[in-house]
Design brief:
109 residues; single chain; 2 domains
Length: 109
């Protein structure tokens, strides 16, 4: 018998998946979470890391997550509100993130 360090987690997951609430949560996970990862991979370049190094991959992941969250937010807003916020967001992105990336990650320069 092979025992893994995370065997307890597998047992807990199997227990929860057998319950009715666990089945519902698993279905929700398949539709919501997997869809977000698929969108990130297919449309936002998350299928491969663009740069090497843990810090650079973390920046890429966080920027992708931010874009996905902004897309969700904009889908909930009406068109007029989005148009008004567009200029503010452009200024925000170009000042804050460009300055951050240039200061902390020389490879993004």
């Amino acid at each position: 018998m092979i025992t893994r360090f995370d065997n307890d987690y597998f047992e807990k997951a199997n227990f929860w998946c057998k319950l009715q609430i666990g089945k519902k949560l698993y279905i929700l996970r398949k539709t919501v979470i997997e869809g977000l990862f698929g969108d990130a991979k297919a449309h936002h370049g998350l299928s491969r890391a663009k740069l090497r190094g843990l810090n650079n991959v973390e920046v890429q992941l966080l920027l992708t997550a931010m874009v996905l969250n902004l897309k969700k937010l904009f889908n909930k807003l009406n068109v007029e509100t989005v148009k008004k916020a567009e200029n503010l967001l452009q200024k925000f992105f170009f000042t804050v993130f460009k300055g951050f990336l240039l200061k902390h990650h020389a490879c993004w320069a």
